[in-house]
Amino acid sequence: MALSLFNKMDSLQEYDLSTCSLFDGMTNDELDEFVDKSVCEIWHIDKGERVVRQNDLIRYLILLVDGLVRTEMITKEGNVLEIEFLEPIRPLAPAFIFAANCRFPVDVIAMQPSVFYLIEKNVWLAEMMKNERLLTNFLRFNSNMTVFLSNKVQMMSIKSLKGKLSLYILENTTPQQPSFVMKRTQTQLAEYFGVQRPSLARTIGEMIEEGLITLQKKTLTVIDRKNLEASI
Predict the structure, then answer these.
(1) Largest Cα–Cα separation, the chain
(2) CATH of the domain at 195
(3) 129 and 204: one domain?
(4) Segment 194-208, tens digit of pLDDT
(5) Residue 71: which CATH number?
(6) Alpha carbon of residue 191 to chain centroid
(7) Residues 168, 1: Cα–Cα separation, whole Å
(8) How far, in whole angstroms, is CA 65 from its chain's centroid?
(9) Half-sphere exposure of residue 84: CA atoms within 13 angstroms, side-chain side
């Protein structure tokens, strides 16, 4: 893991933290002040390297500010379960930072060169105690993550690949916004569902033939939301 020299003047103004829901409602001046006094270290991680390992002790709030990472969990049986891909600006495992057993629940792997800001736990806690907006954002972010994990459990309980894929598509679209750009390749998506790529490609093809969806390059569009919901 490559560690950068910490240079606030050159590095901290490069990334827009206002795009992260943890900092909703904060002005640029407030964010600049927060970063200047809170960020204690910057990590630069090469593609393919692990940022943290499952069960590592959480010593900091770690913010992904540039790049792309993948999170995965090793089950007791030794199987790899992909959880999600994270894009900037996102914290790593924020719901676990103040747990009694505060350890990372997943491996975090850089899918491209990535940059992270580190904030000491006690500093983050002190900032939330002084700033009600920051505290509210933190609680909302963790609540939304609980909903995501609940949906992940629901997806795992669905036996058919068509049902799992339907739930995934519905989670990424709305009746008002029926299209989304698929960030995973079909190989990565197959790993996400724990199936072989040909099985996934066949299921997607069947859903297109049934008129449930269309797929143009990486843009997937829901055509028949009602029957897609019935597939779950």
Answers:
(1) 56
(2) 1.10.10.10
(3) no
(4) 788 999 999 999 999
(5) 2.60.120.10
(6) 16
(7) 33
(8) 12
(9) 14
**For residues 152-183, b (16+ Cβ closer than 10 Å) or e, as one string?**
eeebeebeebbbbbbbbbbeebeeeeeebebe
pLDDT at 13: 53
Task: Please name the residue that has the structure tokens 């943290």.
Answer: 52
Q: How do residues 101-147 score in pLDDT, each as one tens digit?
A: 999 999 999 999 999 999 999 999 999 999 999 999 999 998 887 87
Q: What is the pLDDT of residues 156-172, one digit of tens each?
A: 677 899 998 998 899 88
Residue 4 has pLDDT above 50, yes or no: no
71 token code pair: 């999170």
- Say which residues have a Cβ less than 8 Å from residue 220's Cβ, sequence separation at least 6: 169, 172, 173, 179, 180, 181, 182, 213, 214
The answer to whether residue 3 sits within a structural domain is no
Using CA atoms, how far residue 142 sits from 18, 91, 102, 147, in Å, is 18, 10, 15, 9
Distance of alpha carbon 165 from alpha carbon 194, whole angstroms: 12
